[in-house]
Write a structure and sequence with these properties.
heterodimer, A: TIM Barrel, 8-stranded mixed β-sheet, 3-stranded antiparallel β-sheet, 26% helix, globular, disordered N terminus, B: Rossmann fold, 13 helices, 32% helix, 20% strand
Chain lengths: 375, 326
């Protein structure tokens, strides 16, 4: 029986969550059917404007929203001059994944991440692999009510080392993510965010206080691409990357290479030079293979040779940890010591099959410090 | 028996052998002329009040007869709908009562269609959601010949429809259920895209309209109206402008509304929007408000809809024949 991605998320999510929600927590996993909305919660990060309008201050879109309307993300709504979120506690996807899947290669490798998402996104990338939940309104997907305490409890029971806010765009479920991260921390579980980085400075800095790692999808190094392919902007994302570095939160970057659109050597050169200069050579960068998806089904998959060229450019610029994503079994999935070149974390796909990093985060072969959060 | 229930029961017998409609041609397009016709109700004087259903029906009748040049209202609808057995009507109910489509207007239209065309099997009065329809005063119904329901009940197609900047799931009512569409917008300004008239009304046909307000809806509105199932099936736009609004939209703002008391009609969706835009600008100027362009809300999507890539109609006021029916 074929299973669409939408079916997978709905069925898998419900099964996973219900399986984990045993005992007194079972009541938390109450399903909301499409068409229903969980009662909205007043949002953070907005300001009143005349005439019952509001201006959202969460992301750089700065949506000005009239009464009865929603912001671009589709999950926040102006009701009578107050801005509400419709996704607080409304998880439409929940799954236990290996942390490498996010991907995080330098953050607690080999551990599990309890991964959740709500509907919505503040961009509309033409290649989105999760568009069936990111480009919809909350009432258009199955979801179940999973408040922050429940998120933390399920993560703990599942043996996950972290909660990952992922799949869609966690910035749009900011309040839910923030409170879940606080609850998780109280339970000894860390929190990681997988994001497009399209967020204003103040909410980002506050969020950095409760997150342990952030992976940003840097779509391109061109404003034109951000505008035309992603309905976003580059400059605020670059600002966000610097803020994350400044706040000391562990950072990794994914660059999805889309053939003919953002794969030129020139762009990769500029990108790598900027990362080294502004973020430092120890930020892991994952150059990831695109596969035809969503509104870009007419394009081919990225030739592996193009990504390998990007890896070479990145190493030439001095980036110490560069990876090739979405090509299972490629040698560049493993982490090598930038000093002696030995493999210190051996991966095949999402599975860690060997680790040669000491307790003090150094290479077992040469003693060089390997950047990351290893325990 | 209430009139609404009478219509909802749908007592007409279906005709056999009805043929599937293609987009109806109109004398306007055949002669290369874009016409926007306006019928007025001089008795309508208070903003936000429900129009008289009988009067609305008479206005609709005059409009369609003038549009088609046919001798009777039956011949007019026959010409416009070209044998369609299922017809979709898209009102605009977002703002709730006040500056939304009125049940009186829609009922008048449904009655006229059923009286004129015995072969019509079903009329779908559809909107984005059941709650929007209820806000507008409509009763949700899936019985009889007239169904009234939202896309949240009817569902969307499973496959993504891609057209230019648009990538959306489209209402199953539009995709699968209707052989012809009649657009029933209202006339109001819009806080982001400038004006919300006919073409913007079809935002209700897709699952993700919130993604299409960037750059004042340009080119999204135009691209969306180029989706073949919309472009090819939309035979007429009837803009209910008993109460119209020139500022503060999309919600109802009575202080910025006026009792225009009119219905606009055209088979050219761009021309109708262009005339609606002009009317809103005129009202704004009368009340000392700056133009939409001055406040960064010029609805350039209307001009885009007329460009060589979209060719949805005419946006040049000099080339649009505007006629007020006596």
């Amino acid at each position: 029986m074929s299973c669409s991605r939408r079916d997978f998320f709905c069925q898998g999510a419900c099964l996973a969550a219900l399986a984990l929600a045993s005992g007194p927590h079972k009541a938390g996993a109450q399903t909301r059917r499409p068409g229903e909305l969980i009662p909205p919660k007043e949002a953070q990060w907005w300001e009143q404007r005349p005439g019952k309008r509001i201006e959202c201050t969460l992301c750089p879109k700065k949506c000005r929203v009239d009464d009865l309307e929603r912001g671009y993300c589709g999950v926040r709504e102006n009701r009578g001059g107050t801005y509400y979120t419709h996704v607080y506690g409304a998880a439409c996807a929940a799954h236990v994944d290996p942390i490498e899947k996010k991907p995080f290669f330098h953050f607690l490798p080999g551990t599990k991440a309890f991964s959740i998402a709500t509907a919505g996104c503040n961009m509309d990338c033409a290649f989105c692999q999760n568009w069936e939940i990111s480009q919809v309104r909350p009432e258009q997907v199955d979801a179940y009510y999973m408040p922050p305490q429940e998120v933390a409890a399920i993560a703990k029971r599942s043996g996950s080392a972290s909660v990952a806010y992922t799949y869609t765009e966690p910035v749009v479920f900011y309040e839910y993510m923030y409170d879940s991260a606080v609850a998780a921390r109280e339970s000894g579980v860390r929190s990681v965010m997988v994001s497009n980085g399209y967020i204003q400075e103040k909410p980002l800095r506050k969020l950095c206080g409760v997150l342990d790692a952030i992976k940003v999808d840097l779509k391109s190094f061109r404003e034109k691409y951000y505008k035309e392919i992603c309905a976003g902007e580059l400059a605020p994302v670059l600002d966000a990357l610097e803020i994350i570095r400044d706040e000391g939160v562990w950072l990794e970057i994914v660059y999805l290479m889309v053939p003919t659109l953002n794969d030129s050597a020139e762009e990769i050169e500029e990108l790598c030079a900027w990362i080294v200069e502004k973020l430092g050579p120890d930020v892991p960068v994952h150059f990831t293979r695109f596969h035809p998806m969503y509104r870009l089904k007419h394009l081919p998959s990225t030739p592996v040779s193009l990504i390998e060229r990007a890896l070479k450019i990145a190493r030439k610029h001095g980036l110490n940890y560069v990876y090739l994503g979405n090509v299972a079994g490629h040698e560049s999935e493993s982490t090598r010591c930038p000093s002696c070149g030995e493999i210190v974390v051996h991966r095949v796909g999402y599975t860690v099959i060997g680790k040669k990093i000491t307790g003090s985060n150094t290479c077992s072969y040469c003693g060089n410090t390997i950047a990351g959060v290893w325990s | 028996m209430r009139r609404r229930k009478f219509i909802a029961r749908g007592m007409l017998v279906l005709a056999a052998g009805a043929t599937r409609a293609s987009a109806a041609s109109s004398p306007d397009k055949e002669n290369g002329i874009s016409r926007v016709l306006i019928a007025r109700d001089p008795a309508y004087s208070k903003t936000g009040t429900v129009p008289d259903e009988k009067v609305a029906g008479e206005m609709i009748e005059r409009l369609v007869r003038e549009i088609t040049g046919a001798g009777s209202v039956k011949q007019s609808w026959r010409k416009l709908l070209a044998g369609s057995r299922t017809v979709g009507l898209k009102p605009n109910c977002l703002a709730g009562r006040g500056v939304s489509s009125s049940p009186a207007f829609v009922n008048a239209l449904c009655r006229q269609l059923l009286d004129s065309l015995p072969e019509v099997e079903k009329i779908y009065v559809w909107e984005r959601s059941n709650s929007d329809l209820k806000k507008g005063g409509f009763e949700i119904s899936t019985r009889g010949k007239i169904w009234c329901l939202g896309n949240d009940r009817a569902g969307y197609g499973r496959d993504l429809v891609v057209e230019g900047s648009i990538g959306s799931l489209v209402s199953s009512i539009v995709l699968d259920k209707c052989e012809a569409l009649i657009n029933l917008p209202v006339l109001k300004d819009h806080g982001i895209v400038g004006v919300s008239v006919g073409m913007k009304n079809y935002y209700g046909a897709v699952h993700n309209p919130n993604k299409y307000h960037l750059n004042r809806g340009d080119p999204y509105v135009a691209d969306l109206n180029c989706i073949e199932k919309i472009r090819g099936r939309n035979v007429l736009t009837l803009c209910e402008a008993f109460t119209a609004q020139y500022e503060g939209g999309p919600p109802f703002k009575p202080q910025w509304s006026w009792p225009a008391g009119m219905i606009l009609a055209s088979t050219d969706p761009v021309a109708l929007d262009r005339v609606g835009w002009k009317m809103i600008e005129q009202k704004r100027a009368e009340h000392g408000l700056p133009s939409l362009a001055s406040v960064g809300r010029e609805p350039t999507y209307i001009l885009t809809a007329a460009d060589s890539r979209h060719r949805l109609g005419c946006a040049e006021l000099d080339e649009i024949q505007e006629k007020v029916l006596s």
